[in-house]
Amino acid sequence: MTTYRAPRTLAGLAAAGLLALTGCGTESTDAAARNPAPSGEGRSIRATKVAHVTDVHEATGMTLLEGPVLDGDGNLHVVDVTAPAGEPKVISVDVTTGKHRGVYTDKTGAYTSAQVSPYDGREYLTDFATGSVVSIAPDGSDPRTFFSGKVDGSAMTPDDIAFDDDGNLYVSDAHGTEPDETDGRIVRIDRDGKKTTVLADGLAQPNGVMFDPGLRGLWISELAKDTISYLLLDADKTKVTSRHEAIHVDGGLAQTDSIAVDADGNLYQALHGRPAMAVFSKYGARLATVEVPAKDAEGLQSATNVAIAPGRTAAYMTVSGSDGGYVYKFAALAEGIRQSNGG
To answer: Given 114, 141, 230, 295, which residue has the most CB atoms within 10 angstroms?
Structure first.
């Protein structure tokens, strides 16, 4: 999710969506040679349009798709962060046909991410506007407030979610959205929603949060610093045993948004301010840059997140801008796993 100030109005997070599936993939070697990524950005991977999901809302002046997650039927759910009351805030997209429909809305929520719990199978949504976490049934029914209130005396500004295998939540708290503020946190919420633990603090607008394939630690991105850090956890996953900045993302005007991993441990870093994703190895090498076609890029300002299908390399990226919210597809460098699907 992206935390905004001016263009990031309405909760200051990146989430834009539209799904129209037409097919996608990686360029051939010849095509990539004709359209190479800039020096230092690895090879170029061209994404193809799947669906046009939303248009700019008159009431909010923007649309922002986020939180792509594949449900049990293979449909992609995305959230529209800036959708006004009554308009779809969670949207289901058929990635084969590109058809889409609203599955959930309410009056007040500004949802910045979606993730399915491995414990109860419900879909969990971070509400940037109210500081709460809401869960819904897969069909959008039975909304419940899973968590709300303060953590260690401070209200939450929840952005992205990661789950461990037991269903405990790890949430990026983008607390403080001014450039010089470093009071963001990574917070663990036990699966019953009752106990919270601050795993890391002093962060500059933490956004993406995702486990590595072995669930030994968390990769986190800080939007205000353009960095990706690694938090090694203890066996109970209730304490950080070591923490270091691992990668500095040279994005120019673009900033680090949500983050995902594949089965090989490669990192997919979404870029707020550019309709692209940077792909790194777990050791920090820039492997590739995923980009939309040049003819589409002018009206699209940000790529916010990606879901990689577990057991496959099909990757679905949410992209938004003045032309609306879209879903694009590309071939990931390795297969997806549970942690690849949503966040």
So the answer is: 114
What's the CA gap between 289 and 17, in Å, rounded?
Answer: 20
Per-residue pLDDT of the chain (343 residues; tens, 9 = 90+): 554 433 333 433 333 332 222 223 323 333 333 344 555 788 999 999 999 999 999 999 999 999 999 998 899 999 999 999 999 999 999 999 999 999 999 999 999 999 999 999 999 999 999 999 999 999 999 999 999 999 999 999 999 999 999 999 999 999 755 556 678 999 999 999 999 999 999 999 999 999 999 999 999 999 999 999 999 999 999 999 999 999 999 999 999 999 999 999 999 999 999 999 999 999 999 999 999 999 999 999 999 999 999 999 999 999 999 999 999 999 999 999 999 998 8
* C-alpha angle 34-40-42 in degrees, rounded to nearest 5: 55
Which CATH code for domain 29-340? 2.120.10.30
Amino acid at 58: E
- Tally Cβ neighbours within 10 Å of residue 122: 18
User: Which residues on neighbouring strands pair with residue 4, listed in sequence order?
Assistant: none
Instruction: Give the closest residue to 15 by CA, choosing from 253, 254, 270, 209.
Output: 270
* Cβ proximity of 121 and 136 under 8 Å: no
- Specify the pairing of strand 286-291 against strand 43-46: parallel
